[in-house]
């Protein structure tokens, strides 16, 4: 009887708000009224372009707008040279339709995820993030922001406040209705100082649209307060993230802490056999090698080649095809960062249309952790006012005429793909295909740095995105 191979993904993050005095120009005429700020993004099938419009209608009711045109790069999928032995030439089933219909809202999350991952790629080593989770928390902050503070978030998310609130309400409700062994839990908590007066509208949106807890806490003992928040995160992530906040993360003037935690535990549609896991060599970018356990399987996977980015792409499905893990494997000699720089939202959607082929797969068993302050990353993306004295977050609440600002933004994520857990009954509920000596199948050996995307097939959004440089770290 075989053990289950269950990938686990965990993420926790927090935004900490400290007090500062109101900016003297907060109500000046040139500040943007968020209720008159219109942002739209559409896909023009006839021209193959994405149209992005920012329209601002200040108090004088004069409309100013600017439309940007973002050209979609064509995606070419074709067979490789015979010596690459990927699949037979002329297989029309490997072609994909480029006439893909994008839902503007979920497309915006995908676009944000790519920008996030590319921004994080400046850091060496493994990178991992949940664009869904970060976008959700930013959208929550967006509900309590005004003027340019809100506009920065709107531009980065490419979602108006009303749209983002409705989107995450609908996505959360859709996930709650699912019935399977796959587990995906996401939780938010607006932790407020006892003395902080929360805005009633913000509290209502937080509860009803984001299903967020709203908790009052005494920050006079920062160490105790941080431990209480860490305990909440640990409970929401099945004890995989234990210390989201460092002991010195909170201060006596902290007014609010916005926390988000996500936990995913998926069961493969077809399990890997644990007795086939063998140590093999993984080649690092710096030329060194490490021996790691590799899982093996031979069966049908959706896969193909994207010649534009010089990579093989393969999708491993989870139970009931609710989710899939996308592996983007650069060709030998191609750097994963170069692949990432050329990756587009359209390509990620197009990969979902791959047809299934017989594949001999080898993939390392690994656990990757990412702990970082995303202050610089959000600044890089264009969100900085929430961290400054110019922050206008009065929609969240105030304390004696003082409005909060964000002082810390922490994001932790854990990705684990291993061969532990699962009951015997669940393990035997799926068929297992053994390896054979027949070499007619496509070979997909993940023995070098690669990109991963945990994709929600039903919601059409990325839950986690990452770059694995070293599976042993």
UniProtKB/TrEMBL annotation:
TM region positions: none
SMART domains: SERPIN (SM00093)
Keyword Nucleus: no
Highest taxon of source: Eukaryota
PROSITE patterns: SERPIN
GO cellular component terms attached to this protein's record: extracellular space
UniProt keywords, alphabetically: Protease inhibitor, Serine protease inhibitor
Domain Serpin: 114-471
InterPro entries, per the entry: Serpin_CS (IPR023795), Serpin_dom (IPR023796), Serpin_fam (IPR000215), Serpin_sf (IPR036186), Serpin_sf_1 (IPR042178), Serpin_sf_2 (IPR042185)
Keyword Phosphoprotein: no
An annotated Gene Ontology molecular function: serine-type endopeptidase inhibitor activity
CDD domains per UniProt: serpin
Pfam families: Serpin
Gene3D superfamilies: Alpha-1-antitrypsin, domain 1, Antithrombin, subunit I, domain 2, Serpins superfamily
Family: Belongs to the serpin family.
Protein name: Serpin domain-containing protein
The species this protein was found in: Parnassius mnemosyne (clouded apollo)
């Amino acid at each position: 009887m075989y053990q289950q191979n269950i990938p686990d993904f965990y993420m926790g993050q927090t935004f900490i708000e400290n007090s500062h005095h109101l900016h003297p120009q907060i109500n000046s005429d040139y500040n943007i009224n968020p209720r008159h700020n219109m942002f739209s993004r559409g896909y023009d099938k006839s021209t193959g372009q994405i149209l992005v419009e920012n329209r601002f209608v200040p108090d004088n009711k004069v409309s100013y707008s600017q439309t940007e045109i973002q050209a979609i790069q064509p995606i070419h999928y074709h067979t490789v040279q015979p010596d690459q032995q990927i699949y037979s030439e002329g297989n029309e089933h490997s072609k994909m339709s480029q006439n893909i219909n994008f839902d503007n809202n979920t497309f915006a999350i995908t676009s944000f995820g790519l920008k996030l991952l590319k921004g994080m790629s400046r850091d060496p080593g493994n990178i991992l993030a949940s664009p869904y989770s970060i976008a959700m928390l930013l959208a929550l902050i967006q509900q309590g922001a005004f003027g340019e503070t809100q506009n920065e978030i709107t531009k980065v998310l490419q979602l108006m406040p009303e749209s983002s609130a409705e989107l995450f309400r609908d996505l959360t409700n859709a996930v709650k209705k699912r019935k399977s062994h796959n587990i995906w839990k996401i939780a938010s908590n607006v932790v407020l100082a006892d003395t902080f007066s929360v805005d009633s509208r913000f509290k209502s949106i937080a509860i009803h649209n984001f299903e967020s807890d709203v908790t009052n806490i005494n920050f006079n003992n920062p160490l105790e307060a941080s431990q209480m928040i860490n305990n909440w995160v640990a409970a929401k992530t099945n004890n995989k993230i234990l210390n989201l906040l460092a002991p010195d993360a909170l201060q006596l003037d902290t007014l609010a802490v916005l926390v988000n935690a996500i936990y995913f535990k998926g069961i493969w549609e077809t399990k890997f056999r644990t007795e086939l896991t063998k140590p093999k060599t993984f080649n690092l970018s710096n030329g060194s090698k490490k021996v790691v356990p590799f899982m093996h399987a031979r069966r049908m996977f959706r896969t193909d080649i994207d010649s534009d980015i010089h990579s093989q792409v393969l999708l491993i499905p989870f139970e009931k095809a609710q989710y899939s893990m996308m592996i983007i494997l650069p060709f030998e000699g191609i750097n994963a960062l170069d692949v990432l720089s050329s990756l587009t939202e359209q390509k990620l959607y197009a990969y979902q249309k791959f047809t299934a082929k017989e594949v001999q797969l080898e993939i390392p068993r690994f656990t990757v952790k990412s702990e970082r302050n995303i202050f610089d990353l959000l600044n890089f993306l264009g969100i900085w006012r929430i961290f400054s004295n110019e922050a206008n977050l009065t929609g969240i609440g105030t304390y004696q005429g003082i409005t909060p600002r964000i002082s810390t933004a922490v994001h932790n994520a854990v990705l684990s793909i291993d061969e532990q857990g699962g009951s015997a009954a669940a393990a035997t509920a799926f068929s297992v295909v053994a390896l054979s000596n027949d070499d007619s199948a496509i070979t997909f050996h993940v023995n070098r740095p690669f990109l991963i995307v945990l994709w929600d097939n039903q919601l059409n959004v990325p839950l986690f995105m990452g770059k694995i440089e070293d599976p042993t770290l």
